[in-house]
Amino acid sequence: MTGYGKATITLVDKKINVEIKSLNSKALDLSTRIAPAYREKEMEIRNEIAKSLERGKVDFSLWIDKSDADVVTPINAAVVEGYYRQIRQLSDALEIPMPNDWFKILLRMPDVMSKMETQELSEEEWAEAHKAVQEAIQHLVDFRKQEGSALEKKFREKIANIRSLLESVSPHEAERIEKIKTRIMDALEKTASVDFDKNRLEQELIYYIEKLDINEEKQRLANHLTYFINTMEEGSGQGKKLGFIAQEMGREINTLGSKSNNAEMQKIVVQMKDELEQIKEQVLNVM
């Protein structure tokens, strides 16, 4: 879900800049900073973003760089003229001498130096600004797609690694059962004074071995691995689902570890956990 996009449109007297970036988030969390002249279009901009971005903490900025002539604070000529007339009238009425330095006095009067009122946004200007908004969003989407392709490759690699590790469990599994059985029989034979029922012993061994059986866990984990790949191939909007599948994979791997009772199998389980942890870290970047 991480991404970045920027676009700039140059007009006669100004430059319109649009920037949008996103980070991981379970839902669409959108914050905006928009130049005053474009505030009336905020809802339209939000809808435009929501159509393209389903999830992520998104920061959107739209600002204007004006030409140097527009940056200079203008002199309000109408106000200056009004003060000039009033001063002349007072001078005549009260017989007070006219000032020698008109500009020094007039430029100190209130509201002479004032910012120009915000101009109304024209349809033509908004059409150009809207293009910049769409372009920035598209750049972010393209960025996300590139990240997505890299993630897909990484996920396939990690899933293949876990599958290969799962297959390597089988030889140790058969060896483990035989070792457990031999160890119990040897211990009983060394205890000459103990008389035991061989039929009952066989039943207990079967029960014990069944408790250590991991065929179901192996099958479920294999199914989760396949389900993860199939879900990933369904398209966008599967991030939460992939996260849930990864959790289920973790449960099966943990059960394999608790039932392993074998040093080599435990090493394999640790390797599977390491591969899965890398999947869990990166699945947060999936929409």
UniProtKB/TrEMBL annotation:
Question: A Pfam family for this UniProt protein?
Answer: YicC-like_C
- Keywords carried by this UniProt record: Endonuclease, Hydrolase, Nuclease
Identify the residues that the record assigns to the Endoribonuclease YicC-like C-terminal domain, covering every copy: 172-286
- Which InterPro entries does this entry report, sorted A to Z? YicC-like_C, YicC-like_N, YicC/YloC-like
Q: Where do the Endoribonuclease YicC-like N-terminal domain residues begin and end?
A: 1-152
Asked if the Swiss-Prot or TrEMBL record annotates the protein with the keyword Magnesium, the reply is no
Q: NAD among the record's keywords? A: no
Q: Which family does it belong to?
A: Belongs to the YicC/YloC family.
- NCBIfam families xref list: YicC/YloC family endoribonuclease
Q: What is this protein called?
A: YicC family protein
Q: Give the source species.
A: Bacteroides sedimenti
